[in-house]
Design brief:
Layout: E1 4-8, H1 14-27, H2 38-46, E2 53-59, E3 62-74, E4 79-89, H3 98-112, E5 118-120, H4 127-135, H5 153-156
Parallel strand pairs: 4-5
Antiparallel strand pairs: 1-2, 2-3, 3-4
């Protein structure tokens, strides 16, 4: 693992980021849900004030993992929190410490930003990821995620 290098993504990484996002969508059995485009990645990852932080893990010059995160807020703690949206490891690199290294780097970012915690979601069926997160120090918060998508906004407004 000594040849593992972590770095912040740069605009030249947009094709690799899109590839990782595609791989994640396929893994999660919903490739049709992927709406990322080079323009959206550029805007939300790289323009001034962009909300997303993207880390790339490389081994021997090849991208083998990626983590995206952004800040949210805990009203209860009255502090920001770091939300990990995507953690994607190439199948050939799983079990080699890439994910753990990316999580460790995210925890450093959270500490630098004064965050009260690092948070993420994981599918119930993804037991391998759940075990990996527990090994990295995460605890099950006992929460369920509910989503309100644009096609249902009118329902929320009554």
């Amino acid at each position: 693992m000594t040849d593992l290098r972590l770095r912040r993504a740069v605009p030249a990484d947009i094709p690799v980021i899109l590839e990782f996002l595609h791989d994640l969508a396929v893994y999660q059995k919903e490739p049709e849900a992927l709406k990322a485009t080079p323009e959206l990645i550029r805007r939300h990852y790289f323009e001034e004030g962009a909300p997303v932080t993207c880390l790339v893990a490389e081994r021997s010059g090849e991208a083998v993992g990626m983590l995206t995160c952004c800040e949210s807020f805990s009203g209860f703690k009255s502090k920001p929190l770091l939300y990990v949206d995507c953690l994607i490891i190439r199948e050939t690199a799983r079990g080699t410490g890439v994910g753990r290294a990316l999580i460790a780097e995210a925890s450093k970012i959270a500490e630098e930003r004064g965050c009260c915690r690092v948070e993420l979601n994981v599918y119930d069926w993804n037991e391998a990821a759940q075990a990996a997160y527990r090994r990295s120090g995460f605890e099950d918060a006992g929460l369920r995620t509910y989503c309100l998508t644009p096609d249902r906004y009118s329902i929320a407004r009554g």
